[in-house]
Design a protein that fits this description.
The protein is mostly helical and 219 residues long. Helices cover 62% and strands 0% of the residues.
Length: 219
């Protein structure tokens, strides 16, 4: 299953000249991550899956797919790539609820590649489903061992603050955009529970962020 989710199965087809050449690799990825999502529910599987370097690399690659940048892509392929991305995000959401040791590994894997990918997804305006899942992953990753690096990440804290403070139109305002849940706010509040484990710099960053958010919410 992990082999089928290998990003090389997609990256190698970028040299092809026809969109039809993308179909089989994308189908492999979509099917593989659907299986991996099903496997990611039991606790013992989460631990095992977090230990697989190839799987974590594949997740980082697939959640980074942004088909909105693919000019002229047929709708069928775009839908398949979007589905694969959502399956990968859901898999990451599940395994990020593993014990602290695994949370730490996810945050530090290959110089934080997963955190960087999460931030990219959280800023993607074209797929609100993945965007929402990215905030769930951030929330799941929080623990005393990871709070410092989450707060000190160059983008993550700012993204959480923006998600809470920027006005989001809802359906009552005549917009078809999906309104974000409370997850970004809960992520910020959750980080504050680990204040005793943080450096002075991290505490200051977090306090400033929560102050901005509370002001925007009228608290």
């Amino acid at each position: 299953v992990v082999l089928a989710a290998d990003p090389n199965r997609v990256t190698t087809v970028t040299h092809k000249t026809s969109w039809s050449d993308y179909y089989q690799p994308l189908r492999f990825n979509c099917t593989a991550f659907r299986c991996l999502l099903n496997l990611s529910h039991p606790k013992e599987n989460k631990v095992t899956m977090v230990g697989k370097d190839s799987l974590l690399r594949s997740i980082a690659y697939v959640i980074g797919l942004q088909t909105s940048h693919w000019v002229g892509i047929p709708q069928t392929l775009q839908d398949m790539a979007t589905q694969a991305r959502r399956f990968a995000m859901s898999t990451l959401r599940n395994i990020s609820s593993a014990p602290p040791e695994q949370k730490y590994r996810l945050c530090t894997f290959e110089n934080g590649i997963l955190l960087d990918s999460l931030c990219s997804v959280a800023q993607d305006v074209h797929d609100q489903v993945c965007k929402e899942k990215s905030f769930a992953v951030m929330f799941n990753l929080e623990c005393s061992d990871t709070a410092e690096m989450l707060i000190m990440h160059p983008k993550l804290l700012e993204i959480l603050v923006d998600a809470v403070t920027l006005q989001r139109p809802n359906s009552s305002q005549g917009s078809d955009k999906i309104e974000l849940s409370e997850m970004p706010y809960q992520s910020l509040v959750g980080l504050s529970q680990f204040a005793n484990c943080l450096s002075c710099d991290a505490n200051v960053r977090l306090e400033n962020a929560i102050s901005i958010v509370n002001s925007s919410r009228g608290h």
